[in-house]
Structures are given as C-alpha cells and as structure tokens.
Amino acid sequence: MIYAFKGFIPVIHESAFIHPQAAVTGNVIIGKNVYVGPGAAIRGDWGGIVIEDGCNVQENCTIHMFPGVTVLLKENAHIGHGAIIHGASIGKNCLIGMNSVIMDDVELGDECIVGALTMIKANEKFPARSLIVGNPGKVIKEVSDEMISWKTTGTALYQALPGEMRESWEAVEPLREIPANRPSQESLYKTWNELKK
C-alpha cells in the first residue's frame, strides 16, 4: 500500500517492486530495481527516506526516523529480513543482516557488512568495509574482496526479482495436494558457510 501524508506522495521508479502487503508512506523516494518485501514499513511521515537504485528491503523491515531526519540507503544496500533502520545512513553495497537494529545518526561507510542480530547504537560511525557484529555492534575485521563479491552476487538476485515478480507473480487458490509433476527449484546462491567449504 502506498500512502500520501501531509502532501508528500511517495516517488517510486516504475522498475521497482513494492509488495502490496508493504506500507510506503509520505516523503519516500525509491529508485530503480528496488525490491520491497511484504510486511516492510517505510514510513516517511516525520522525515524523508531515500532508497537508491538496486537496494532491497526485505520482509518485515522497518525504516523510520526522528522528526527532521532523512534516512539514506545508498545504491545496492541490502537490508535483511526483519531489520530496523532508524534515522541512519547506509553506505553503498552494504549488507545489513537479519533482525539487526541500526539506530539514529549511524553512518555506515560503503561495503560494510552487519551481522544478523547486531545492534548498532546511535551516533556510531564506521569506515568502509567494516564487518560489524554483536550488541553493541563492534568491528571485528575488514570485509574482504571475497566477502563483497559474495554479497554483491546475492544482491543481484534481489535486483532481478522486481522484473521476475512482474512477469510471473500472481494471486492464486492453493492446490489441495502435491502434483506429480511439481518442478524442483534451482540453487542460485550459496550461503557464506557453503561457499567456504
């Protein structure tokens, strides 16, 4: 659902896919090939939200801010399931792990990776290529070229997803039994642990 608020109507590029069970409100700008999953709340009521080209905001994420603040997700940022971004700036090609919390005035440099369940306190600043984990979030090492390559490949799947959703996604009635000719799904991507084996 897309909602105007106090005269602000979200601006969404036609190549983006916003799931109808997501809520996008007010002063929000969404770029090219962005995927926003069901349950995501992108609420630009008290401030702005800019989601640049190639980003994804997965299922049940929340993006919001204190009054007068603009949240920025730079190009190719990847926001994992259930993450909360509140008043922060996320650098280009960053990965925010599932159920992480990124608080107010946090600045992540380009190509940072934030581990799942990490909590980054307000006003923290991290240089590019920081691998951040824990509660509170701490840098444990520099992100390697191999890690960024893995992250970029995963993000590319999400960048293709808006077009695939427009081509083949539809509401249907469920089947009541498994058909004999049910196809198998191809494996498009390996987890980091699988890749390292």
List the defining traits of the structure above.
single chain; 197 residues; alpha/beta; UDP N-Acetylglucosamine Acyltransferase, domain 1; twelve-stranded parallel beta sheet; 2 helices; 20 strands; 14% helix; Phenylacetic acid degradation protein/carnitine operon protein CaiE; Hexapep
Largest sheet, strands/sense/barrel: 12 strands, parallel
Task: Using the CA coordinates, give the radius of gyration.
Answer: 17 Å
How many distinct helices?
A: 2
CATH topology: UDP N-Acetylglucosamine Acyltransferase, domain 1
- CATH hierarchy, class: Mainly Beta
Mean pLDDT: 96
CATH superfamily: Hexapeptide repeat proteins
Structural class: alpha/beta
The ordered string of helix (H) and strand (E) elements is EEEEEEEEEEEEEEEEEEEEHH
Number of strands: 20
Task: Provide the CATH architecture.
Answer: 3 Solenoid
Q: What's the N-to-C terminus distance?
A: 42 Å
Overall geometric form? globular
Helix content: 10-25%
Low-confidence stretches: none
Q: Tell me the strand percentage band.
A: 25-35%
Tally of distinct domains: 1
